[in-house]
Design brief:
Helix content: 55-70%
Structural class: alpha+beta
Number of strands: 2
Shape: elongated
Low-confidence stretches: none
Largest sheet: 2 strands, antiparallel
Mean pLDDT: 87
Strand content: 5-15%
Order of helices and strands: HHHHEEH
Length: 95
Amino acid sequence: MDEVFKALADPSRRKLLDRLFKRDGQTLGELCERLSMTRFGVVTHLRVLEEAGLVVARRAGRERLRYLNPVPVRRVHDRSVSKYAAPFAAPRAPL
């Protein structure tokens, strides 16, 4: 779970995840478009995301497509966020 928090801590990596959320299955070239990062920088960030399990790469012919894997984010939500939010989200008894 620490790898997921580390991966989500960087705004550039969150931007890459947002781009994959909008359109899954993108190549490195497509992910590099409209980013103020070098190709090497994008590859470095993608490696961190892949190690955390947030992004999965699959070969499609000569291309390597990246896909969003939402399972680690859901695990973080279920384990950390929901237990703290539950007392505040429960309906209150009238006074």
